[in-house]
Write a structure and sequence with these properties.
single chain, 215 residues, alpha+beta, Porin, eight-stranded antiparallel beta barrel, 2 helices
């Protein structure tokens, strides 16, 4: 009986040590949320030119030059150097306000807005060296984004149109994770997205800050 008790005590002790070691390991799975901002190149003059070509007269178009960005993501750390991430990104609206008079002296007003949303995937590579440098990362991958637009014009009557285009492109960026606790970090990152919506002339440079939590 003593031998049996001794064996059980030894097994329980070994199990307790194994659990303690496992609890001290870093989780490979993590997730987070980013918020950010992206500048937008103005296309107000292009819109004005189109409207004048259609209706004649004169028109004024005003556009915001930046939008907020939100991003949700989840990742898996293969080891201390490599990780894989999948994310969902959505922007606020790029808005144009329109006020014009047609060639027949009919006043009209309108607005147009566009937003981007979709999935992205990337691989993260961190330096092998430590002493804080391992918190830096380079991110490279791809995305499939949708550009949704909505245009409304009001004059003698009201006309509206909605369009949506989607397509794939590449992304590349850099970032840094600042530890807050053992399982929580603050992330700051800068990412370049090309061919948004599959359009080779559409791109974005987005700066984000957010939180990363290990599962």
């Amino acid at each position: 009986m003593k031998k049996i008790i001794f064996t059980l005590v030894a097994l329980l002790s070994f199990f307790q040590q194994a659990v303690a070691v496992e609890s001290n390991k870093d989780s490979a799975w993590y997730g987070g949320v980013d918020v950010g901002y992206s500048r937008v190149e103005s296309s107000a003059q292009e819109t004005a030119n189109v409207l004048v070509n259609i209706f004649g007269g004169a028109v004024t178009v005003l556009q915001n030059t930046g939008v907020p960005v939100g991003r949700l993501f989840a990742g898996y750390a293969i080891n201390q150097t490599y990780a894989l991430e999948l994310g969902y990104l959505r922007t606020g609206d790029v808005t144009q306000n329109i006020a014009g008079v047609s060639g027949g002296l009919v006043p009209y007003t309108g607005n147009a807005n566009a937003s981007v949303s979709g999935l992205e995937f990337s691989a993260l590579i961190r330096p092998v060296i430590t002493n804080g440098w391992e918190r830096f990362f380079i991110r490279a991958g791809g995305h499939n984004f949708d550009i949704s637009t909505n245009v409304t014009l009001t004059g003698i009557g009201t006309a509206s149109a909605k369009t949506s285009i989607s397509g794939s492109g590449l992304l590349i960026g850099i970032g840094y994770d600042t530890p807050i606790s053992h399982s929580l970090s603050c992330r700051s990152a800068y990412t370049h997205y090309d061919k948004i919506g599959g359009d080779s002339s559409s791109y974005a440079n987005i700066f984000t800050v957010g939180l990363v939590a290990k599962f």
